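hey m, so remember when u said the tokens were messed up on ur end? i reran from scratch. heres the input so u can diff it against urs
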Amino acid sequence: MQEKQLSEKDKMLAGKAYQAGGTELAGERLKAREIVFEFNNLAPKQIKARKQLIKRLFGKTGTMFYVEPPFRCDYGYNIEIDEHFYSNFNLTILDCAKVKIGKHAFFGPNVALYTAGHPLHPHLRDQEYEWAQSITIGDSVWLGGNVVVNPGVTIGNNVVVGSGSVVTKDIPDNVFAAGNPCKVIREITDADKDFYHKNFTLEQ
């Protein structure tokens, strides 16, 4: 029995090399752009309407989230956010593969998550081949402004990534990481919590 030929979308979702110019994927990107355009052009006070558009666009959301416009993505349906998600201005998610974001995630302005990649060799790149690898971000993660997360990266729980970092490899739980390429700087401990209690007035 002859095997069913994979569509370019099937290849994309399976992490195989694919070409994005076909009618199916182009149509899905256009649909996402129409929703994103509407989202980005609503009046600032239309918070509920923006929230409903994100729920239509994303594959999964929690009940409590806020995406500050403007926002950009490729498809939308590969993005999953959990409860208490917040992103500041200019979040870009190239979601050719799955992007999973945990609870209490906080993104500064100009954060970019890139699941998409292209061949190093120009012969293949000129034929418009690309590939995609998923990105996973754990609970209670803060990505500072202008952080870039590259394809295939997993960021653990309770992580802070310093502004301007380019994350090319996995980051473990409970650390502060920064740099280009991003590296673990130190562990986050209870001493960090004590610092804020000593130096700021915090409600218990």
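this time it looks ok to me. The mean pLDDT is 95. if urs says something different then somethings off w ur setup not the seq
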